[in-house]
Amino acid sequence: MADSTADGVERRLPTDEARELLSLVRDIARREIAPRAAEEEAAGRFPRELFALLSRSGLLGLPYDPGHGGGGQPYEVYLQVLEELAAARLTVGLGVSVHTLSCHALAGFGTEEQRAAHLPAMLGGGLLGAYCLSEPSAGSDAAALRTRAVREGDDWVIDGTKAWITHGGIADFCTVMARTGGPGARGITAFLVPGDAPGLSAAPPERKMGMKGSPTAQLHFDGVRVGDDRRLGGEGQGFSIALDALDSGRLGIAACAVGLAQAALEEAVAYAKERRQFGRPIADFQGLRFLLADMATRVEAGRALYLEAARLRDEGRAFGRCAAMAKLFCTDAAMQVTTDAVQVLGGYGYTADFPVERYLREAKMLQIVEGTNQIQRVVIARHLVGPESR
Ligand SMILES: Cc1cc2nc3c(=O)[nH]c(=O)nc-3n(C[C@H](O)[C@H](O)[C@H](O)COP(=O)(O)OP(=O)(O)OC[C@H]3O[C@@H](n4cnc5c(N)ncnc54)[C@H](O)[C@@H]3O)c2cc1C
After folding, report:
1. Is 40 a catalytic residue?
2. Which CATH architecture has domain 129-238?
3. I want to staple 264 with a disulfide (CB 3.0 to 4.6 A). Which of 9, 89, 120, 338 is the partner?
């Protein structure tokens, strides 16, 4: 079943329901998200009310079980929704992706009782989530994390600092990986912590080069107490839960990257048709035509790769290797395409009067989050030649 974006990009959607969903999302993106993007990013404003609208529209729990308030959509469809949102504003696409990531531990590893108690509010009740793995001295080497949870009777008491947390300080709930045992990956357990838990506080947001509308902050856990009924999965299972979530989360980042690159491509094409030099539209010059052709090819190749990984996932097949490739390829493509878009616009591309300089700054972040692109290469190489020997 085919559908196309505003600029005629063909999409293959599996059902009529998916086609209607994409059309609803495009409508929200065009009317509610895109018009405010430049101004709010410059002002560093997070659009909380937009997330309330997305929640009411069923867009904050798309790939999860309808029995718990989710949308029951395959990843293939969910990711195309993310792409549309990110094309309108990356802060929104990324926010939905991070929220979805933060629901993964409970949806996949919680007990039926825990799911019934918390998931409906998380998936469709207006709540916003955060995923708390990174720490100031544990980034790529996340298994070295130091935040500790100590058992006291029926409770756990959490102390430590999480770093770089998207939605840090505004999230209603946090999925937190903390050390409950010895060193390394096997000593880590996952917890669902309310955003307003006593002892939980946020530092002022980081001053980033882009994505200023998306708050990123350290979270301090100072004797934060949660019941054992908020432990997700078994003791010591937290790191494998975190990695399982990241396999899927990386696909979200890949789809967001393609959305951002698509937006940059559309700006570049429109400008090249309008701008005249040497008595002709600059789109007449082969030097630019080839640049635009390469940009479009990167976007389409990225889309094909993330959809391939999504379809493997939807079929219940192993998709981790393909997800790492999609994250790597799509975010590198977004970096290249946004850089080229600035070039197409010449001096104007370097000003804030056009969105492409913002797109370029936003693309850089995608090469870093949810495993840097070096780490994606480490993952892919392990699939090819096995683990490194030390
Ligand atoms: C805007 C933003 C939002 C984020 N949101 C979240 C979030 O919501 N939740 C969360 O938990 N984290 C989040 N992060 C953290 C992000 O996942 C980390 O920044 C990332 O994993 C890298 O960790 P690091 O910054 O400590 O870099 P480091 O791990 O210190 O890496 C520094 C450099 O060394 C390279 N490197 C490290 N190890 C290797 C290796 N083995 N082989 C080759 N190269 C290597 C890296 O690729 C990088 O280039 C966010 C980060 C940013 C910038």
Report:
1. no
2. Beta Barrel (2.40)
3. 338
